[in-house]
Design goal:
The protein is mostly helical. The protein contains seven helices and three strands, in the order H-H-E-E-E-H-H-H-H-H.
Length: about 130
C-alpha cells in the first residue's frame, strides 16, 4: 500500500502545473484580461496570451495557429511550451521561471535583466 501511495504521489508531482492564478495573471499582463483575436507585437502575436507563430510551433500542439485566440487553447499551447522548455520549473510550479520563459523564450536566462519587469508584473498580478 505504501508503494502505491508513493507511486501516485510521484506521478501527480510529475504532472504538476502552475496554479490558476498564474494563468489569470499572465492573461492580465498580456492583454488586460481581454479575449479574442487580439494582435500584439506589431502583428507578431495573437490572442489573450499573445502567442507568436514560432511559440505555437515550438509547443508542438496540433491544429492551426489561429486557435490561440481562445483562452483555453492558448493555455494549452503555453502549457505544452513550458513543459517542453522548462519541465523542472513546470513540475515545481515555479511561476517566476515560467513567466520569464513565456516572455523571452527558451534563452530567457541570457536576458534576465530584460525579463525582470515582466516577471514582477506577473507576480503582482497573482496577488
Amino acid at each position: 500500500m505504501k508503494t502505491l501511495v508513493l507511486f501516485l504521489t510521484l506521478a501527480a508531482a510529475a504532472h504538476a502545473a502552475p496554479p490558476a492564478s498564474f494563468w489569470a495573471a499572465l492573461h492580465q499582463v498580456e492583454t488586460s484580461g481581454r479575449l479574442g483575436a487580439i494582435e500584439g507585437d506589431g502583428g507578431r502575436s495573437l490572442g489573450p496570451l499573445q502567442i507568436s507563430r514560432a511559440y505555437f510551433a515550438d509547443s508542438r500542439v496540433t491544429g492551426s495557429y489561429e486557435q490561440v485566440i481562445e483562452l483555453e487553447a492558448a493555455i494549452k499551447v503555453a502549457s505544452a511550451y513550458m513543459r517542453r522548455y522548462e519541465p523542472e520549473a513546470w513540475r515545481q510550479g515555479n511561476v517566476e521561471i515560467l513567466a520569464r520563459l513565456h516572455n523571452a523564450g527558451p534563452g530567457w536566462r541570457r536576458k534576465l535583466a530584460a525579463t525582470d519587469a515582466y516577471a514582477a508584473k506577473v507576480r503582482r498580478a497573482m496577488r
